[in-house]
Design goal:
Elements lengths: L1 H10 L5 E4 L15 E4 L8 H12 L3 E5 L1 H14 L4 E6 L3 H7 L4 H7 L1 H4 L5 E4 L2 H11 L6 E3 L7 H7 L15 E5 L8 H11 L6 E5 L5 H10 L6 E5 L4 H5 L4 E4 L8 H8 L4 E4 L5 H5 L5 E3 L4 H13 L4 H9 L3 H16 L1
Parallel strand pairs: 1-2, 3-4, 4-5, 5-6, 7-8, 7-10, 8-9, 10-11, 11-12
Helix pairs in contact: 1-16, 2-3, 9-14, 12-15
């Protein structure tokens, strides 16, 4: 999302910088060559605020846009300390309340406790779904008028180009066995364990295969679960892929088994690939993206219901062209125009 936003504003002739704490990340090379990349001078925890304040003073940005609660609160404090007049737009991209409820007591969790105190000092707040906006109003104790609902700019013409890229995987060479695919970090919120259990149930009636794209700290545990359930022949952990849409376009079904989301960019990517979707009906995002018959929804945390919905979706796939048109409703151009109007109005 940050890459799409930075490239859009750079193409429109704005002076755009992306501020990063570390000199790494898979997406750096996707940034427009006119986008400046600014790194913190130090990522020592005791020096983070000082490094950030010096960046704000040196560059005197007109507007700063951030995402995730820890960076949002950090940014508000940094502006206080630096004394600059930079406008701040913070955004929420996940179900913050559930995320912090399920996390251990860390600095990040303490950040959550600061949300009601600090979010009110932002000049505007963006939520990526209507459901998230309603939750944020309660969590942050800010008026609804200050929250702008803007969906993620998740579709671009490049997505459909990527969908046509060849993928070398033996499972795609046997169309008689449906291939199910999911994409997401291997973290608790995505609940890949539930999907593995649902595949085991589905396999009792239908021969299917599952490809899991993504990386994360649960990888070894998920592989052990696959081995313990003797599903090695039909479930593969294929790791992180920079171009997952090319893989999606070769599959028969996309499944999202998350316990919670903020929006669900990956659902739009699946739509762009013309892929029928089954998703848990989690807070927030999937029901808003798939409403109107663009996918199948299943109760959160219910492996039996998820297996049933997957069987139904495989038997009744949705028209590919219809799904691709739905994806375009979340296109970068029209959604970034919303951001452009918000940012321009604030700076002027």
């Amino acid at each position: 999302m940050i890459v799409n936003a930075a490239n859009y504003f750079a193409a429109a002739g704005h002076d755009v910088s992306v501020v990063l704490m570390k000199r790494d990340g898979e997406y750096i090379d996707l940034l427009d060559q006119n986008v400046k990349i600014i790194f913190f001078k130090s990522i020592d925890k005791t020096k983070l605020l000082r490094s950030f304040s010096s960046i704000l003073k040196e560059h005197q940005f007109d507007l700063l846009f951030t995402a995730t609660p820890s960076l949002n609160t950090f940014t508000v404090i940094g502006r206080f300390l630096s004394g600059v007049r930079t406008k701040i737009v913070i955004s929420e991209r996940n179900n913050t309340a559930v995320f912090f409820k399920n996390s251990s007591l860390t600095l990040s969790k303490l950040t959550f406790l600061a949300i009601p105190l600090l979010y009110r000092f932002a000049d505007a707040v963006v939520a990526v779904s209507e459901g998230l906006a309603g939750s944020l109003k309660k969590v942050a104790l800010i008026p609804k008028r200050k929250i702008h609902v803007i969906y993620n700019p998740a579709w671009s013409p490049q997505l459909e180009e990527q969908a046509g890229t060849e993928v070398s995987h033996e499972w795609f060479q046997f169309p008689e066995v449906p291939v199910i695919i999911t994409v997401g970090r291997l973290v608790p919120a995505k609940n890949h364990a539930l999907l593995i259990e649902a595949i085991a149930l589905l396999r009792k009636d239908i021969q299917v295969r599952l490809i899991i794209l993504g990386d994360g700290n649960l990888k070894s545990g998920l592989q052990k679960k696959i081995d313990d359930m003797n599903l090695q022949d039909c479930i593969r952990l294929e790791g992180f892929k920079l171009n997952p849409v090319s893989w999606m376009s070769k599959a028969d079904l996309f499944v999202l088994s998350s316990d919670y989301e903020g929006f669900g960019n990956v659902l739009v990517e699946a739509l762009a690939a013309g892929l029928t979707i089954v998703s848990t009906d989690c807070d927030f995002g999937p029901s808003e993206i798939l409403k109107g018959g663009y996918g199948y929804l299943s109760p959160v945390g219910n492996a039996t219901a998820l297996a049933s919905e997957m069987a139904r979706a495989l038997q009744s796939p949705i028209d590919k062209n219809r799904l691709k048109k739905r994806a375009q409703e979340f296109g970068t151009e029209q959604i970034m125009r919303r951001y452009d109007e918000l940012f321009s109005g604030m700076v002027s």
